[in-house]
Design brief:
Structural class: mainly alpha
Number of helices: 2
Radius of gyration: 15 Å
Distance between the termini: 30 Å
Number of strands: 0
Low-confidence stretches: none
Length: about 60
């Protein structure tokens, strides 16, 4: 297996940990989407919030 390119992860998003208030707000606002809605603006907003929740959970678990 070859060595990884150090620039390979430059395009990955990097987030700051969410505050407890933000976590609570994002979780309370979660909604179910139909397949046809995937990619619309509301879905994209929720997708980004779920990524931030995931980032925060993983980051806090590693502390």
């Amino acid at each position: 297996m070859g060595a990884m390119d150090p620039d390979a992860f430059d395009d990955l998003p990097c987030f700051e940990d969410l505050t407890p208030f933000e976590v609570e707000h994002f979780v309370k606002d979660l909604e179910e989407f139909q397949l046809e809605q995937v990619g619309d603006p509301r879905w994209l907003t929720q997708h980004e919030r779920v990524e931030k929740l995931n980032w925060t959970a993983h980051n806090q678990a590693s502390d």
